[in-house]
Design a protein that fits this description.
Blueprint: E1 6-9, H1 11-19, E2 24-30, H2 36-48, E3 52-55, H3 57-63, E4 71-75, H4 83-93, E5 98-103, H5 108-120, E6 125-129, H6 138-143, E7 153-156, H7 159-168, E8 172-176, E9 182-183, E10 193-198, H8 206-209, E11 214-217, H9 229-243
Parallel strand pairs: 2-3, 5-6, 5-10, 6-7, 8-10, 8-11, 9-11
Antiparallel strand pairs: 1-4, 2-4
Length: about 250
């Protein structure tokens, strides 16, 4: 367990953390755990779309020697923005807003590297989904060189909610995919936009592609069909920096 993460344990403690709107990374629950309180907690976690990992009791015992009641949770070291706070950031920046949307990037090292590049290239906010995304933990902090503390991160229940909001605020939505016809050097990034990067293995989901205003790709001249997602993200973000004349 990384020292950058806060550990809480016990059914009641985890429930109280949820009620007080703490940013839970993940909840570990003992396999086969029974009882009304446990079932009630699981129901709440599913409703809030908080990730659950069902693990053997030995793993929970490694987290803590105290009475965990079969439940251990980790709290993120940062406070995530709400969608309302995201809206205020966009409205404040108006014509020069740069948003990065991550469609279920699950690898912590990729996520950390992306956050670092986003911070260095002036991204105003990163949007991630509650489920399927890499946790913000000690590894993220290390890989990002602490950038997670400098760039706002908004966690939403569904990426689509954020996309609909951004569209209402006149933010153009670009989806990065190798299936696009237009490459990044043909796109106009001089105003405000949001760039969506897909997951490591699957890329952008079809439902997200359908919501994009435009699809873009990075020219690939070799035999390998795709770049690592963090490298691809950096390439796109710095093309935006170049076009804006920095």
């Amino acid at each position: 367990m990384s020292k950058e993460q806060t550990l809480i344990y016990g059914i009641r403690s985890v429930k109280e953390a949820i009620e007080s709107e703490k940013s839970l990374n993940r909840v570990y629950i003992q396999r086969g755990l029974k009882g009304a309180s446990a079932f009630d907690l699981i129901k709440i976690l599913n409703k809030k779309e908080i990730e659950i990992s069902y693990v053997p009791i030995e793993k929970l015992n490694r987290f803590t020697v105290k009475n965990h009641q079969g439940v251990v949770a980790t709290i993120a070291p940062i406070k995530f923005l709400t969608i309302d706070q995201l809206s205020k950031i966009v409205e404040k920046k108006k014509d020069s807003c740069q948003i990065l949307i991550l469609d279920q990037i699950s690898d912590v090292r990729n996520f950390g590297a992306i956050v670092r590049t986003a911070e260095c290239s002036g991204v105003d906010c990163i949007i991630i989904q509650s489920s399927g995304s890499a946790p913000v933990n000690g590894d993220t902090i290390k890989t990002s060189s602490g950038a997670v503390f400098n760039v706002p991160i908004c966690k939403v229940s569904h990426i689509k909610d954020a996309i609909f909001l951004l569209k209402q605020l006149n933010i153009k939505i670009y989806g990065a995919t190798e299936k696009a016809e237009k490459n990044i050097y043909q796109a106009d990034f001089k105003s405000s936009q949001a760039i969506i990067m897909g997951s490591e293995g699957k890329g952008l989901s079809k439902s997200i592609v359908a919501l994009c205003d435009e699809l873009i790709k990075i020219p690939l001249l070799g035999k390998i069909e795709s770049l690592n997602v963090s490298v691809a993200c950096g390439t796109i973000l710095y093309e935006i920096v170049r076009q804006k004349g920095f």
